[in-house]
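About this split. The held-out portion is used to measure sequence recovery: a designer receives only the structure tokens and must propose an amino acid at every position. Recovery is the fraction of positions where the proposal matches the reference. Here is one held-out target exactly as it appears in the evaluation file.
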């Protein structure tokens, strides 16, 4: 996610920003978090999810989205290929590119997903052909939301965006770092030269969270032998109901399963789809011959925690978790991931102190 070209900072009103969006739609599908009434957990609540937009007024800036931008680049259900008796074909690629509005933590999350699907042992062609067409608009996050701990995860700030925006009541400040996108705003500027509604070369700073109410203490160099049989995992045997919500809302979870769909007209024709999967749900570790691993829910919790704060870092050099807090937001049993990390850290400190005590004796 390297910045391209120079920097152009401008301020413009909502009407002119929407005009730029209209021009961008000639080449881009524009996605942002929007509030959808009556689609939340209860019938009278809303859900905030990513959807195509036409105007900036549609974007939900003041609330955390329940799902991340991941569902644009890695859809919940994605057709991998169509098959017949004679062969198979891949779906056609989208002609238009993607422009996605998101927060800093979610842009950091994209980097984590890139590691898994692009920089791992095998490159994923389905993800890559979407990812190659994506550019990002980061909007500020001046205040921390409930359950966020992005500051401790160092994902609260970023400058690796194509466009950064700061939205006020009357103006939108725009930091454009991509020559291709700059051209669309140049069109708007040239159309408004005479009315002085656009200010060029303005100075402003992006608004990023500086502190969270929640803090985490992540242990370094965790060894599986030290944590695999800790009693703290047994708490989750009964508390966790293995619904998988924490995985599905997580912006860095990348596991999928495959489904073959056979058409009713001819059961030799159909399509293979990949669908989001969860390491918490039953059946995730099922193998041929009836074998299955991590039957206890606490062991599944341990697997997820280790992946987010230890295993991924050993491979790629930084933590997988970005501290967005969506897992805590979504859990119907009020299980706190950040609290689990802190309990694990305290337990490892206790074990380390006991070992030092044994040596000193």
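Reference sequence for scoring:
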């Amino acid at each position: 996610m390297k910045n391209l070209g120079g920097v152009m900072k401008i301020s413009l009103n909502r009407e002119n920003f929407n005009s730029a969006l209209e021009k961008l739609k000639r080449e881009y599908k524009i996605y942002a978090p929007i509030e959808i009434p009556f689609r939340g957990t209860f019938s009278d609540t809303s859900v905030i999810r990513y959807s195509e937009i036409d105007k900036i007024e549609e974007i939900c800036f003041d609330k955390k989205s329940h799902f991340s931008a991941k569902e644009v680049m890695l859809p919940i259900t994605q057709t991998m290929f169509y098959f017949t008796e004679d062969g198979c074909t891949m779906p056609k690629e989208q002609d238009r590119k993607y422009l996605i509005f998101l927060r800093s933590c979610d842009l950091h999350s994209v980097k984590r997903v890139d590691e898994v699907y692009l920089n791992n042992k095998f490159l994923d062609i389905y993800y890559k052909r979407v990812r190659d067409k994506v550019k990002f608009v980061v909007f500020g996050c001046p205040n921390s939301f409930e359950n966020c701990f992005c500051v401790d995860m160092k994902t609260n700030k970023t400058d690796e965006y194509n466009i950064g925006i700061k939205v006020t009541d009357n103006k939108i400040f725009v930091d454009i770092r991509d020559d291709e996108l700059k051209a669309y705003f140049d069109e708007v500027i040239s159309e408004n030269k005479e009315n002085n509604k656009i200010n060029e070369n303005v100075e402003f700073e992006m608004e990023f969270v500086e502190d969270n109410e929640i803090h985490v203490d992540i242990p370094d160099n965790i060894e599986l032998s030290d944590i695999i049989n800790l009693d703290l995992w047994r708490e989750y045997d009964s508390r966790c109901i293995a619904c998988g919500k924490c995985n599905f809302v997580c912006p860095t979870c990348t596991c999928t399963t495959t489904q073959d769909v056979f058409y009713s007209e001819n059961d030799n024709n159909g399509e293979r789809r990949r669908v989001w999967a969860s390491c918490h749900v039953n059946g995730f570790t099922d193998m041929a011959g009836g074998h299955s691993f991590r039957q206890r829910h606490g062991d599944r919790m341990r697997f997820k925690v280790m992946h987010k704060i230890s295993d991924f870092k050993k491979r790629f050099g930084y933590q997988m978790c970005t501290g967005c807090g969506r897992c805590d937001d979504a859990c119907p049993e009020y299980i706190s991931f950040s609290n689990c990390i802190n309990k694990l850290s305290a337990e490892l400190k206790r074990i380390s102190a006991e070992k030092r005590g044994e040596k000193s004796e």
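Annotator remark: The mean pLDDT is 92.
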